[in-house]
Automatic annotation (TrEMBL):
The keyword Signal applies. May be involved in the biogenesis of curli organelles. It comes from Pandoraea terrae. Keywords: Signal. The lineage of its organism: Bacteria, Pseudomonadati, Pseudomonadota, Betaproteobacteria, Burkholderiales. Residues 1-20 form the signal peptide. InterPro entries: T8SS_CsgF. Pfam families: CsgF. This is Curli production assembly/transport component CsgF.
Length: 134
């Protein structure tokens, strides 16, 4: 019994002396107020975790990059010239149908300044549509 009492007494003394303190948050990342000297450590850890391999055989040459950019510019201007017929002089969409080689674009008035634009792929018959307000 005395061993039990002694153990209980030691336990109570140990618990009684345990004190609580404030929790203090100290940021580590310099982007969020942490020490700026931690920046190189964080960037090095991020670079070590980066599994992205830049395979030189998959990189495009400057000529290929130029051709890709040129193609984007031409397609953008083509889309602008095609869509020019869809708008009136005030910049509002005009109900009607526009046909291209591959697509058909139908603009339908739903009333109340609402328009539905339906694009149909002529080769597959797939349609996508959305509504806009004028």
């Amino acid at each position: 019994m005395t061993i039990r009492y002694a153990t209980a007494l030691l336990l109570l003394i140990a618990l009684g002396s345990a004190g609580a303190t404030e929790l203090v948050y100290v940021p580590k990342n310099p982007s969020f107020g942490g020490n700026p000297l931690n920046g190189t450590t964080f960037i090095n850890e991020a670079q070590l975790q980066n599994k992205h391999d830049t395979d030189p055989s998959t990189q495009k040459s400057q000529l290929q990059q130029f051709n890709d950019n040129l193609q984007r510019v031409i397609l953008s201007r083509l889309a602008s010239s095609i869509s020019g017929g869809l708008f009136d002089s005030n910049g509002k969409l005009v109900p009607g149908t526009l046909d291209t080689t591959d697509f058909s674009i139908a603009i339908t008035s739903l009333g109340g300044n609402q328009l539905q634009i339906t694009t149909t792929d002529k080769s597959t018959g797939q349609q996508t549509s959305f509504q806009v307000s004028q």
